[in-house]
């Protein structure tokens, strides 16, 4: 019998492939560099083949470049034999929340949003609606807040502590401070997070605003739209400055 390994994941997506950037790395020539991605949602777990060379085998079904809903205990094979197999088991849990912060309710979350420059200038009823639907998350030291390549389904507002942006799995010089946001542009474009963000050496709290709530607020509030444009402009200027610096080297 071949080697077996048990892995536990808590993020909503799990990437599998031969490349080292994946969550599960299988160093075998029969596995493509970006072979498959597993999605966890309130409906359970599904898997999508990413146009791999050998596809995926689930029971008697062989899929290529398709997505399939899985059943508890399904075996997902990455080759025609039983050598490269993943056994999927999962447990549906609510995201970890701060019970003290949640007990304070909408008012406390409203104050946190108000303290963020990104949301300043919004009408009170808009802030109240965002605060009512937002969730408070607790992250332990060195825990991922978001992962590069994962679907951007939430805008994150850091409440306290600090977080750092990782570029290609190495620390960049960009630090996220309380009141700053994570993933706002990716949420707007319905794309994927473009970087991995992890907490620094202390526990952090953050507000998670669902994409649909953020988009609804944006569609009715020109002030928020202007804030987004200013952020895009600032990032473009920063990128141009980095390109200019690299050109001069």
Helix fraction by DSSP (H/I, runs of at least 4): 25-40%
Q: Please give the alpha-carbon distance between the first and last residues.
A: 54 Å
Mean pLDDT: 78
Q: Taking Cα atoms only, what radius of gyration do you get, to the nearest Å?
A: 20 Å
CATH fold field value of the largest domain: Jelly Rolls
Strand content: 25-35%
How many alpha or pi helices? 5
Number of strands: 17
CATH architecture field of the largest domain: Sandwich
Give your account of this protein's structure.
The chain has 249 residues and is of the alpha+beta class. It has 2 domains: 13-88, Tumour Suppressor Smad4; 104-247, Jelly Rolls, CATH 2.60.120. 28% of the residues lie in helices and 30% in strands. It contains 5 helices and 17 strands. The chain has helices at residues 99-115, 124-133, 184-188, 211-220, 222-248, and strands spanning 13-17, 24-25, 36-41, 44-49, 56-58, 61-63, 67-69, 75-77, 85-87, 135-139, 144-146, 154-160, 163-167, 170-176, 181-182, 196-199, 204-210. The strands form 4 sheets. Strands 2-1-3-4-7 form a 5-stranded mixed beta sheet, with no helix packed on it. Strands 6-5-8-9 form a 4-stranded antiparallel beta sheet, with no helix packed on it. The protein has a 4-stranded antiparallel beta sheet with strand order 10-17-12-15. A hairpin with a 7-residue loop joins β8 (75-77) and β9. α1 (99-115) runs antiparallel to α2 (124-133) and α4 (211-220) packs across α5. It is elongated and about 60 Å long. Mean pLDDT is 78; it is low at 242-247.
């Amino acid at each position: 019998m071949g080697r077996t390994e048990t892995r536990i994941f808590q993020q909503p997506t799990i990437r599998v492939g031969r490349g080292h950037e994946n969550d599960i790395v299988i160093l075998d020539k029969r596995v493509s560099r970006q072979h498959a991605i597993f999605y966890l949602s309130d409906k359970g777990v599904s898997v999508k083949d990413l146009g791999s060379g050998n596809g995926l085998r689930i029971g008697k079904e062989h899929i290529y470049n398709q997505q399939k809903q899985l059943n508890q205990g399904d075996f997902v094979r990455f080759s025609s034999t039983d050598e490269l197999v993943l056994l999927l088991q999962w447990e549906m849990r609510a995201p970890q929340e701060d019970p003290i912060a949640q007990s304070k309710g909408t008012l406390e979350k409203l104050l946190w949003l108000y303290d963020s420059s990104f949301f300043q200038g919004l009408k009170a009823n808009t802030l109240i609606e965002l605060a009512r639907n937002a969730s408070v998350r607790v992250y332990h030291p060195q825990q991922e807040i978001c992962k590069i390549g994962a679907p951007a389904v939430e805008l994150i507002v850091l409440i306290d502590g600090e977080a750092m942006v990782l570029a290609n799995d190495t620390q960049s010089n960009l630090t996220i401070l309380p009141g700053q946001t994570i993933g706002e542009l990716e949420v707007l474009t319905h794309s994927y997070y473009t970087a991995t963000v992890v907490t620094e050496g202390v526990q952090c709290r953050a507000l998670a605003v669902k994409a649909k709530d953020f988009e609804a607020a944006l569609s009715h509030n020109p002030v928020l739209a202007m804030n987004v444009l200013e952020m895009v402009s600032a990032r473009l200027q920063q990128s141009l400055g980095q390109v200019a610096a690299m050109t001069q080297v």
